[in-house]
Structure formats: structure tokens, C-alpha cells
Write a structure and sequence with these properties.
This protein is of the alpha/beta class and 291 residues long. The protein is built from nine helices and seven strands. The protein has helices at residues 20-32, 70-77, 91-97, 111-118, 144-172, 194-214, 232-237, 241-248, 259-270; strands spanning 42-48, 82-85, 101-107, 126-129, 176-181, 219-226, 281-284. It has a seven-stranded mixed β-sheet, sandwiched between helices. α1 (20-32) packs across α9, α4 (111-118) packs parallel to α5 (144-172) and α5 runs parallel beside α6 (194-214). The protein is globular and about 50 Å long.
Length: 291
Amino acid sequence: GARRAWPRLHAPPPRPQASRATRRTLLRVLGHAPDAIHAHAQTTICRPRPTHPVIGPPRPAPRPSEPRSAAQDWQCGRRNSALVTGAGESGTALSRRYTRRETVCVDLADWEATEQALGGVGPVDLLVNNAAVAFLQPFLEVTKEAYDMSFNVNLWAVIQVSQIVARGLIARGAPGVIVNVSSQASQWGLTNHSVYCSTKGALDILTKVMAVELGPHKIRVNAVNPTVVMTPMGQAAWSDPQKAKAMLDRIPLGRFAEMENVVDTILFLLSDRSSMTTGSTVPVDGGFLAT
């Protein structure tokens, strides 16, 4: 028989929606991210130009005969904007190559410079905290410089950029989504990764606290926790076949992640399909953390 249409007692609140344009931007940022073994404090923040939003154009209006919901009114009338951190020193080249994306180059390890650079960034609905650095040092050889730079970029910058975006959302009374790019290293001890693992462990619990405090403002916060991803950092850190084999042997799917695997998970968390998900850390690890 015909499927019964149940009445909606309440119109769903308007929420930001991601699109294919966001996916392309994330792939470009992850693909150009230095994520090097040594610090790359020069980081790029990608945001849409007013006429070319990172988030796709509004959905077409329904036909006059179709019922129109509050959510449809919102989707048809609003252009969302997204902010992604972490394109690194290649940000200038990105800006030249992809003219539909505007980049802001700033040292995210510098609190004052970041505050000044993002002070006029404009309305942002979706935030992806992707910027990170990694120093591979044995525990007994960890340096203060490696510690300071790692925590400044991997944690402090997340706090600061998220504060700027969240305050803007709250001031506008708008819902929003924040996704923090963490790592399986937040939940597993890896040799020579003592500082990196520490920053990602801190990022996981920060994600949960942010979700608790920002939830009443209709801002969702989640993290993705990838295994080794074949970015420049992943290739540099895991180019040794013997080292790579030891990791691959622990991954039930038997392979490292590609950028598309991480980007698709981020897009899911940015989308309305995950509207009841907040405070979660989502593994993209081929089953590594299950072993």
C-alpha cells in the first residue's frame, strides 16, 4: 500500500549543509598540507569568497504545488561558509591555483597574529580544525621546542579558532558544526610519538568538553581519528617498509587510509545526517583500535 506520511509536529531547526564543493576543498587542503615531521607553523585558513561559497549553492526552491517547510525556506535562502585550517606553507600556491577559495596565511602558533587575522573572517557555519605538526622524537630526547610547537598548533590553535567561530555563531543565533582532526595516536602509544600522542589525546577530551558546553547553542563538535593517511606527513613518517609492515599487520583491513576516506567521514559529521551526533571520536582506522 501507499506509504503513510506522518505529520511533523515541529519543523526541524535550520542546519548547515556540506556539499561537493566542501569535499573538493578538504581534499585540496589535506593534499597540500605539509604535516611534516618538522614544524610548519605557517598555516593557511581557507574560507569562501562572497560569490563562491565553500559550501554549495542553495537548493532550488520547491514547485508552488509542493508543501514548503521551515527547513526548506532556510536551505533555499542561505549560503553557508566553511573554514578549514591546515594548508601549510603551500597556502599561497593554493590561493593562486584555486581562485574560488580565499586563503588567509597565519602562524597558528602565534595567538595574537591568529586573533588579528581571523578577527574579520566573517560568518562561518562549519569549521574543520585540520592543522597539525608532528615531531618524531624518543621520549628521552623530547625537546621543549617540540613540545611547545606541538601543543601550540595541535591544541591551542584549535581552542582559539574554535572560540572565534563559536562566538560568531552564538552572536548570530545560528547553529554550526566543528570537526577536529585527531588521530588513532590519541588512544594508542606509538614509539617516538610521545608528544604527538599527547596532543591528540588532549584534543579528544577537548572535543567532548566543547560538545558539552556548545551543545545548548546548537553547535555540534566531533573528532575524526584516522590511522596513517597518505599525506606528505604520512609518507614521510611511514616510508620505512619494516615500520609500515608492523603497523599494517595491526590493521584488519590491511591498508593505510587515503585522504578520501577521511574527507568523507568529515563531510558526514558536517552534514545533517549526523545531526544527533556530538562529542564523538570517530575512528577511520581500518579496525586498528579494535585489535
